[in-house]
C-alpha cells in the first residue's frame, strides 16, 4: 500500500525522548495514526504538533507522487468533532461520542427515497426485499456506535415514504383501509409493513 511506512515514520519522529532514544511508549504529544485503506486520521495533543505532523505527511506523500486532498483534509478540535468512515467523533461532557455522521444519514435517506420511488408500481414483497437489503447492511455497520436515536429517525422517515407510496396507489381509499392493506400487527407493533411472506426490517427492532 502507498501509505505503508507512515505510521512507523510518525512513531520514530514523535516517540523520541530528550536523550534521542526511540521508545514507542514515550509519545509525549500523543500522536497516533488510525488508517483504513487510503483514508486516515492523525491525533495529537495540540494544534501546533498537528501542523508539524501535516508537513511530515505531505513530505512523505510527495516522495511517492501523491498529495493530501484539500477537500478531505482538516485540522479540528475533538470537542468540535470530525467525520471518519461514516461516523462522527466528538467529545461530549468528557466522553467520546461516536454516532453515524450527518452525511451518512443523508445518504441512506436519499437511497431509501430513490428505492421507494423506483418501485412505486411494484408489488409490496419486492419493495420490502429491496429496502431490507439497504437497511440491514446499514444497521449492521452502525450498530457498534451510539445509533439508537438515528435508527429511530431512519425508521420514521422510511415510514413516511411508505405511507405516501401506499396512499398514492389507492387515492380513493381512506387511511384505515390503506393501513390495513399494507401494515399488520407483529410483536406488539401495530404498524409493521409486511405481507404473509416477508416483513420490513426495522432498525429499532434488531
Core attributes:
3-stranded antiparallel beta sheet, single chain, two-stranded antiparallel sheet
Secondary structure layout plus pairing:
Blueprint: H1 6-14, E1 32-36, E2 39-43, H2 47-62, E3 82-84, E4 87-92, E5 95-100, H3 102-118, H4 124-142, H5 148-169, H6 175-182, E6 183-186, E7 189-193
Antiparallel strand pairs: 1-2, 3-4, 4-5, 6-7
Helix pairs in contact: 3-4, 3-5
Describe the 3D structure.
This protein is of the alpha+beta class and 206 residues long. It has two domains: 6-75, no CATH class; 102-205, no CATH class. The protein is 44% helix and 17% strand. It has helices spanning 6-14, 47-62, 102-118, 124-142, 148-169, 175-182, and strands at 32-36, 39-43, 82-84, 87-92, 95-100, 183-186, 189-193. It has a three-stranded antiparallel sheet. Helix 3 (102-118) runs parallel beside helix 5. The radius of gyration is 24 Å and the shape is elongated. The two termini are 37 Å apart. The mean pLDDT is 92.
* Separation of the first and last Cα atoms: 37 Å
Global outline: elongated
> What is the CA-based Rg, rounded?
24 Å
Quaternary structure of the protein: single chain
Q: Name the helix and strand elements from N-terminus to C-terminus, one letter apiece.
A: HEEHEEEHHHHEE
Please outline the major beta sheet: 3 strands, antiparallel
Strand proportion: 15-25%
Low-confidence stretches: none
Number of helices: 6
Mean pLDDT equals: 92
Number of domains: 2
Fraction of helical residues: 40-55%
- Beta strand count: 7
Question: Strands of the biggest beta sheet: in what spatial order?
Answer: 3-4-5
Structural class by helix and strand composition: alpha+beta
Amino acid at each position: 500500500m502507498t501509505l505503508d511506512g507512515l505510521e512507523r515514520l510518525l512513531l520514530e519522529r514523535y516517540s523520541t525522548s530528550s536523550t534521542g532514544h526511540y521508545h514507542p511508549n514515550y509519545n509525549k504529544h500523543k500522536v497516533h495514526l488510525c488508517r483504513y485503506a487510503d483514508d486516515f486520521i492523525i491525533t495529537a495533543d495540540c494544534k501546533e504538533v498537528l501542523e508539524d505532523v501535516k508537513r511530515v505527511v505531505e513530505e512523505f506523500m510527495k516522495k511517492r507522487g501523491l498529495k493530501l486532498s484539500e477537500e478531505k483534509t482538516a485540522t479540528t478540535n475533538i470537542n468540535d468533532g470530525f467525520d471518519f468512515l461514516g461516523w462522527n467523533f466528538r467529545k461530549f461532557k468528557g466522553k467520546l461520542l461516536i454516532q453515524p455522521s450527518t452525511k451518512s444519514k443523508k445518504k441512506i435517506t436519499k437511497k431509501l427515497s430513490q428505492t421507494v420511488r423506483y418501485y412505486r408500481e411494484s408489488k409490496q414483497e419486492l419493495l420490502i426485499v429491496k429496502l431490507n437489503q439497504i437497511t440491514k447492511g446499514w444497521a449492521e455497520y452502525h450498530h457498534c456506535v451510539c445509533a439508537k436515536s438515528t435508527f429511530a429517525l431512519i425508521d420514521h422517515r422510511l415510514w413516511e415514504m411508505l405511507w405516501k407510496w401506499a396512499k398514492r396507489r389507492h387515492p380513493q381509499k381512506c387511511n384505515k383501509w390503506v393501513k390495513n392493506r399494507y401494515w399488520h400487527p407483529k410483536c406488539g407493533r401495530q404498524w409493521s409493513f409486511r405481507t404473509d411472506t416477508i416483513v420490513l426490517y426495522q432498525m429499532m427492532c434488531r
